[in-house]
Amino acid sequence: MDNLVLEITNAALLTIIIEVPIFYICGYKKASQLLTFALVNYVSNTLLNDALPAYTATLGYWTKLCIGELLVIAFEYALMLHVISEDKNRLLKTICLTNIISIILGLVLLFNF
Amino acid sequence: MHLLVDGVCGAVLAIYAIKEPHLEPIIFYFGLYTIFAFGLQGPVGWLLDKAPTYNKKAIVASTLLLALGTIPQLTIGMQAVLLGLGNCLFHVVGGSYVLRKYSTYSELGLFVSSGAIGLGLGLYGIISVWPLLALACLFTGLAVKNMQELTREDLTFSPNVLYENSSNKLLGIVALLFGCIVLRGFGSGNVLESSFIMLLPCTFALGKLLGGFVCDKIGYKKTVLLILFIGFVGLKIQGLYGGLLFVLASNMTMPLTLRLAHWCRIGAPGLMFGLAASCLVPGTIFKDLISLPPQLILVLQFLILVIAGFALLKKEYQYG
Q1: Does residue A70 register a pLDDT over 70?
Q2: Contact at 8 Å (CB) between B60 and B144?
């Protein structure tokens, strides 16, 4: 149980380390925006990682992961809209991009270590 | 009065459940009661919307049905049906009255919160049938004396704080809001155990009450964020307190979903309240068969409330 908590926390930290700089590169440079995005990422990542083992429906891991990632994108977008109200399309594209890069990097790390 | 009505139903069903040695008939008759009490609220609400000046008669009829349902000489099947019908009628009249008379969230929260406590008091035998029924009769008299008969014009009350939406879009929002209520039914914490048996009913009630009051105080947008925060903290804390916080957060959504569902069909408060109540039936029946992770419930409820807010509430969510 302690190992699982540690793994989830590590995964959340790794996601923040990957996604926050991409968010910065995409033009969101204010400290408040970056801090909120980091917090939102922590919440979404821990919720996803807690839910994946708990969801017992007869779906494969990858199907669950894909549905989960789509929900994460929607969830992060809905939360960030409370902080960034201008140019919603750009915000959505940025969140999609950060999550896609994060998944790819996460998979690379998973299969190499 | 909601407390008393649910209390009478709970107390009568508890008397039967204590005497019945087998589990199957208990599940059957509780299910029968649930179907009549919650499942029929939609059609009954639709009928009452057609005749909005029949509120007082309907309140008297509901108390009469409840009183008939307490007669011990009747079969339990008949009692379950009568109690279910009385409860259904009361909920629809009370709910649609509150929806029409007020345009804020607190009153809705107050109305829906008291039922859980009443049901707990009755089911756990803390108060017996007769005092509850006597008080229900007294309150019926007071309601008939003081209740305003709202006319059809009251049904067309339209708050100018809403975005205009096509009927198809409104239908989609209603479906989402009802989905949020179905999810609440699956996240009502049946596994929580405590030595204080009223803890869970009190948490249900507090959540609904708090949801309404907080929403009026700090606004819809911040309330939705607060619900997410409380739910998230609840999921992070292990054990009873975490579970209670999650149940509290889940129940805080109730006045918000009811108010927004009503604003999607302002002319049909009875139907909207009734259908919303019917959405609790799947959770009651299938909670043990379908397991949904609480994290998923929390995220979906949050997303639905934000989507509905963006689509409806002009003051709270502005399009960029």
Answers
A1: yes
A2: yes
Report the pLDDT value the prediction gives residue B264, as an integer from 0 to 100.
Answer: 85
Distance CA B171, CA A81 (A): 24
Quote the pTM value: 0.82
Q: List, for residues B158-214, the tens digit of each pLDDT value.
A: 556 677 777 788 888 888 888 888 888 876 655 556 566 677 888 888 999 999 999
Nearest by CB: A78 against B292, B293, B302: B302
Average pLDDT along chain B: 81
- Please give the distance of CA B105 from its chain centroid, rounded to a whole number: 13
Amino acid at site A75: F
Q: Which of B221, B235, B291 sits opposite A82 (nearest CB)?
A: B221
CB contact residues (below 8 A), chain A span 45-64, against chain B: 46-48, 50-51, 54-56
Output the pLDDT for position A57: 59
- pLDDT score at A6: 61
Provide the pLDDT for residue A15.
81
For residue B297, give the chain A residue with the closest CA: A51
| Rounded Cα gap, residues B12 and B7, in angstroms | 9
Using CA atoms in the order A79, A83, A87, A91, what is the torsion angle rounded to 10 degrees? -40
Alpha-carbon gap, residue B35 to B262, rounded angstroms: 22
Please count the other Cβ atoms lying within 10 Å of the Cβ belonging to residue A31: 7
Find, among A1, A44, A18, the residue nearest to A106 by Cα: A18
Task: Check the CA dihedral A83-A86-A89-A91 and report its sign.
Answer: negative
Encoded amino acid at B176, one letter: L
- The ipTM (two decimal places) reads 0.81
CA distance B276 to B283: 13
DSSP B130-156: HHHHHHHHHHHHHHHHH-----HHHHT
Count other Cβ atoms within 10 Å, centred on residue B24.
Answer: 8
